[in-house]
Amino acid sequence: MSAKLHLLTPDQCLVEQLSQNFQSHSLETLRTTLLVVPTQRLGTAILVRLLETRPAIIPPQIVTLEALLRSAGTRREGEPSSETYAIAHEATIDLILRQRLEEHPYQHLRLGHERELRLLYGELYDHLLRNEGMEKLQATIVDDIYKNEAHLGSLYDRALEIAAILEFLDQRLSELHLRIRSHQLALSAETLAGDWDRISEAYESITLIGFTSMATSWQKILPTLVADDRVAFWLSEAPRLYHPTSPLKELLKTLHELKPEIHHENQNAPVAPRKAFQCFVAQNIREEVVWVSQMVQKALDQGFPAARIGLLVTDENLYGTVIRSVFAEGGLDCNIALPESWGGTLAGRHLLALLQFWKEKQNLPSLLAWIDHPLSAAQWDDAKLIALRRGIMQAGVPAQLDHIRAELKEELREDFDELASTLSALRMDQILSLSAWLEHLDNYINAFDYWTSFPSRDVLQSSQEVYKDFVASMRAFGSQQPLMTGLSFWDLVESHLLKGSVRGTGEPLAGIQILSLAEARYFPFEVVIIVGCHEGCFPKALPQDELLDNYLKKMIGLPGWEVLEAMEDQTFHLLKARLPHLIMLRSARLGEELLVRSRFTEALIARERTQEIALPTPFSLVKNFEAPLEEEGSLENWLDISTARMSASRLDKLLHCPYSFLLESLGIRSEASRADESDSRREGEWLHAVLQAFITGQSPRGKVMEPWIPDDEPDLYERALERINLITDRMVPFDLKESVLVHHLKHHAWPRYLEHLLKQIGAGRSIREYAFGHTHAPVTIELRGLSRELHGRIDALDFSSQWSFVTDYKRRTIPSLDKSKKGLNPQLSFYALALKQRSPVRPLPPLVLGYWNIYQGVWTAHGIDEEHRSLLLTNGLCSKATPTTEAMTDELMKTWRWREEDILEKQRFYADPGQCQLCDYAGLCRKDDPRVHERMAAQDRLEQRLEGRESPGVKIAND
Question: What is the C-alpha separation between 226 and 229, in angstroms, rounded?
Fold first, then answer.
């Protein structure tokens, strides 16, 4: 008995045929079926198709072949547990090679060859040539007809050096109980073949589907599989290629030699529909992707199911960002399953900006680029950062941090020192142990809250896995942590962390499928659009090896780089044979570089007698330059996008002046910010930090003392006062040490604050700087039928036995109670909405919302629980006029909804002078322009609402 080999013609869909075959299987057979696939996404496609064709199933177990090999165990049969090996990360291999190249005086090998050596090492194990490959290389060079040429003598010496360093790599990995992935999988294939009966005994049926190639080392399992009558292969016949070699043909040849039972599945195949091929060229990549979105929309309008429309990407790095941007704007339901580099994420770009700063010798543009990154800006108050940035620019262009500091004003130096210390932890001119470098990297990533910056949970998880794998690979050296230069460490970070692949899983088969070309080989699509059909992208440009050229690799017995081109050719022909609608797009140029259309496009045009059509600029990119003066703030569809994630400060701008909100949401920073506010902002930051450190023991620069733990001892107040005064002395800015303010704080403000905290409130638990609305734990509300995410940071949460006190610290003045009643002070109401969904204490006691005036030492309640009003009055914690928390939040939601509906009615983010607060954008506002002054004065919509003089046509809705 032998396995069955089901062969389909290239124009048949493997997924459809296998699904039909599975329809005849019983539920029990399906449950005990093992389905082995080349990619997990193909397994998902098969599973979805099975669910569409049968009302109820117990699905088969679906695994990739690599996962099946790994499941055979990292310990081979008969190998003692002490000899168990883990798979070495690529970064570990490169680090070992780098160390060896630095320490050993090779003549031909040098730093920079690590990647090529690692790839060669893996290929040798993939093709079972590790033991004899180097001998073949040396024999080839010796026997070559050109051996008398002088340069070939050095080539032979180079081969000896390569053999020596790979032997060293074998030895070093063995000492660390590591193996390269290719080596481990080759051994796993042997284990799987030798122990197949035991490993597969739970399965009644085993099916392998969709393979187009297989590593030589993995093919050791094929004789065992073919000898098992439970096994079935479902493969396509090899299509005719433009390329002279076909990986699928070679795989089928290997299988045929093992003599399985062959079944041709094309006897009853329906007549293939006439195929439609189209080729287009756009002016640039942006226009190319915009045209794709319009073609996708047209296909949807014609009735094609969204999940059967595929957008295939030849180069994820080149097209990924543009595709995410265009399809996010277009509103099409799609699953973007493209990998992106870790360095392409928001967090990765921040780390890359730091790398560029050190690479570019600390020049001013790279420093400003790092400062302007959102993750850098999030660590400082806006006004403080603007003042510091302006000061740095005024300092000229010195090329060192120390030189920049010397040019700064004295009042900016403390903030600059904080910024410089953050940058300097990972400076490139240091020599540290590897463990010290990793500790600095970890501290840096935590300091800037990298893990809160990712847009979705799956991307966050993927990014964390890449980072953890990188760090674990570095720590695989155990106690033997080498000393490293900053250049060596950053090279590893750039090569393996920043270039690591991050992927969001999305919703498989939900909406338009956007994925890489290789993954789409057997997907059941009806319409496919391929972008990037130009030479160098499709097919990809072959790498230029420096150590061993393609000829020598083939003489060793390796397949050579042409196999990559053959795989792309094979993928293209399998798609072309099967798909009824195939559209190929490319750009005419990339920047200033002219692009040449793909050879696959050339052949398609010749054989199908079609032509490449030049596309005009898409309608959506045509700009209207006639912008009338009265239409300031007009931006189509921006309201829903810009309010999807809101903070209290952004909501305040929206309520008071939609135009200032628009500018802020577009990331526009006004240089009109008043410089005289910088000192007060800095002072406010310091006061907040003292109040935070009193509870947590932590300052922005690190630990000040142990966290505060209240007790019932009679001297609690005296100890608390001593503690806060000591913290004040330790944290006071240098220029305020002898100021009257410090004396005022110690003898007036702090005693009043502690009486309020310890006696009036009787806080048993206190939390400072409580952040809510992280991407992994969103806080949402519903407004106008749309979900909004809330995020922010609460200055103080104090919990007594009866209440939850929510406090916002103000330095001098507090907002108007009347405005809070009318929903115009959103901050505390915003916090109340968030805490009702996500609180650090469950169940949440009744909320008391208020402000603490630091200078005056006065508490003012702005929201309370009506049931406890009398008790709060007795304790002096509210007044009869204090509104309830429910009333405050209700008014806020009414005002918020009113403002958004008014913006939608006006169809623009107009400037509202009704409650003008002279914001940072005062210098950009045109309210004083005599040409539009009268019109803008009439836009005082907020004032009209408060005075009840709105026009009858405007709807004021309750939420």
Answer: 7
Count the neighbouring beta carbons within 10 Å of the beta carbon of residue 191.
Answer: 21
Residue 923: what pLDDT? 65
Strands 501-502 and 340-341: antiparallel
Give the phi and the psi of residue 440 in degrees, each rounded to 5: -60, -40
The C-alpha atoms of residue 530 and residue 311 are separated, in whole angstroms, by: 6
Number of H helices, E strands in the chain: 39, 31
Six token digits for residue 658: 């939609």
User: Cα dihedral sign for 624, 629, 632, 637?
Assistant: negative
Give every strand in the sheet of 645-646, ordered side by side: 645-646, 786-790, 779-783
For 755-789, write each residue's pLDDT tens digit. 999 988 989 899 999 999 876 788 999 999 899 99
- pTM attached to this predicted model: 0.60
Q: If 0-12 CB within 10 Å is exposed, 13-18 middle and 19+ buried, where does residue 921 land? A: buried
Rounded CA gap, 295 and 290, in Å? 9
What pLDDT, on the 0 to 100 scale, is given for residue 806?
96
Helix (H) or strand (E) holding 232: strand 231-236
783 contacts 897 by C-beta, under 8 angstroms: yes
Residue 398, Ramachandran bin (φ over 0: left; ψ between -120 and 50: alpha; else beta): beta
Residue 782 CB neighbours (<10 A): 10
pLDDT tens per residue, range 314-335: 988 888 888 888 887 667 888 8
b/e code 172-186 from CB counts within 10 Å (16+ = b): bbeebebbbbbbbbb
Over pLDDT 90: what percentage of the chain? 28
For the stretch 16-45, pLDDT in tens is 888 888 888 888 888 899 999 998 878 888
Residue length of the chain: 959
Place of tokens 């809070």: 820
Return the closest-CA partner of residue 775 out of 350, 347, 288, 489: 347
In this structure, the strands spanning 698-699 and 702-703 are antiparallel
In whole angstroms, what is the distance from residue 865 CA to residue 846 CA? 6
DSSP track, 857-884? TEEEEEEB-GGGHHHHHHTTS--TTPPB
